[in-house]
Specification:
This is ParB/Sulfiredoxin domain-containing protein. By secondary structure, this protein is of the alpha+beta class. It has 7 helices and 6 strands; from the N terminus they run H-H-H-E-E-H-E-H-E-E-H-E-H. Helix 2 runs parallel beside helix 7. The longest helix has 18 residues.
């Protein structure tokens, strides 16, 4: 399993300064190239007009299932917040089909810090299906479970042959973000990688940056 740093992440993420991170990335892109300056200008507009009143860290509501995925940056640890209930609704509304995995293949997606090892204290909650992300920008292309950690762990521990999961890759889960800052930072990092690391994106035509497609 993945070595858990959940306690460290929870503590460090409280001190993250999202706007310091945004402006730092914007400055780097601005100085990189003419294209970078164009993308940076659009992100400056987004930050100043659409994000300036957003609060961080996000407050997770009582009675609604959310999940925190933490990302390490030079500026600190950021908490991406996912709305699991919304993701479940999308799966139902879009009739998305699950993928069958051998638990041996996906146990690596489970963070030990999200597993309750006290079986007498487990509150069964299967209203939302098992969900896994695989993102170049959030999980370094590794599988990462955002819902159903215990079900994967139990399937693995019981030597079950298969388990159904819903697998989402980049640009398939942007509607799952609970808060605007999480969504904005995700799109920002994609543009940053494209500008600084020369990593191409899937956009075509004039608006070849995610900033031009971002909306709250």
């Amino acid at each position: 399993m993945v070595e858990s740093k959940i306690d460290y992440y929870e503590e460090e993420s409280q001190h993250f300064k999202p706007f310091k991170h945004f402006y730092g990335r914007i400055k780097e892109m601005e100085n990189e190239s003419n294209y970078g300056a164009e993308v940076a200008s659009k992100w400056s507009e987004i930050v100043n007009q659409s994000l300036r009143h957003e609060l961080y860290p996000v407050v997770h509501p009582i009675g609604q299932e959310t999940f925190s995925l933490y990302a390490e940056f030079p500026t600190g640890v950021f908490e991406y917040a996912f709305d699991i209930d919304r993701a479940t609704s999308l799966i139902k509304n879009e009739s998305i089909k699950p993928v069958v995995f051998d638990p041996l293949e996906i146990i690596v997606s489970v963070d030990e810090g999200n597993i309750n090892t006290d079986t007498s204290n487990i509150k069964t909650n299967h209203k939302n299906p098992v969900m896994i992300l695989q993102s170049q920008y959030l999980t370094e292309n590794k599988l990462y479970c955002i819902n159903g950690n215990h079900r994967i762990f139990e399937a693995y521990r019981n030597n079950e042959k298969q388990i159904e999961v819903y697998l989402f890759k980049d640009l398939e889960f942007d509607t799952f973000f609970y808060d605007v800052l999480s969504k904005a930072l995700y799109f920002l990092e994609m543009d940053y990688s494209n500008v600084i690391k020369n990593e191409g994106n899937s956009l075509k035509g004039e608006n070849t940056a995610y900033a031009f497609n971002f909306n709250c």
